[in-house]
Predict the 3D structure of the following.
Amino acid sequence: MGSLGASRLIREPLKRGTSLDHLEYVDMTPIIGREYPTAKLKAMLEAPNADEQLRDLAILISERGVVVFRAPQDDLTIDDQKHITDQLGRLTGRPAEHGLHVHPLYNDPNNIPMADGTTDEHIYVINSEAAKKLYATMKDRPGAADEPRDLGREWHSDSLYENAPSDFSFLRMESTPATGGDTLWASGYELYDRLSGPFRRFLETLTATCAQPVFATACAAGGYAVASPRGSPLNVGAAFAPSHPVVRTNPVTGWKSVFAGLGLHVSRIDGVTSYEDALIRDYLLRLLTRNHDGVARLHWTRGACAIWTNVSTLHAATPDTHLVDGIRTGVRASGIGEVPYLDPASTGRREALGLPQY
Ligand SMILES: [Fe+2]
């Protein structure tokens, strides 16, 4: 059915070629995630058909949600990582004027530098020691003493607060404790596929405001300017309050996904009452957490890389590295994709692949 409807789509889905078929892999779960235990991204870049392989990789990530390269990618430079992240979007039809995201708080003088002591506006540095300091300031918040932490609030897709949010994110783990700090990815395709027909049709009429006023506040308090533009002429200024569709079509696969209906960066479903807003977002989060067969979990090892699509997945960090010895540090690059849209002619993943409805 998907192929019959394809010609009516706003963007024709891309067909994955065979350029990666020589690589050994294992799927992390039947529904989401793939891991390459031995493949080297550097070899992919140095191959005569590098762009063909990167295009197939981008389509694969769009299909599987997240792809992990387990062998330490020690020979990959920061420029390589930026190039790969950028090419994944370029080779799959991203707007030509879009590039790599710049974090809104990049100008903060307290930002953690990369291992060589430098900073790069297109690289976001993750560091568990810095996170520990942040948590230390948050532990006295109201309710902190008598409630377990609600890790449901960790779920998000990257830079949803931008008019044009991220398509692909690429995280390389430079060092990690022996245990702790896992990252989880949930399939937005599967969330969509598990909704009833009437509820799908209702959610498809909705948008959500993804406001993140904290950036403008932080910049004002720190006395520096919000970084701008941030990977797109559309991502400028300090408003950070776009409206995005609750159900979105991934232009690479042509499949529908739950998108701005839940997660850290979603502040309000538009046009409904506050009760209804809470009901919809609570329901979608419950659907995600009660259906962990749509979730892949990665135990990081040194030098491992994960590349994911923010169009059709949400991800969550696990803030438990304070319980163990060892520092978790990583570097992330994110591309900026198209302005999110819902194509009414698109279908869910299961329908497109001829799989039974869940
Ligand atoms: Fe993230």
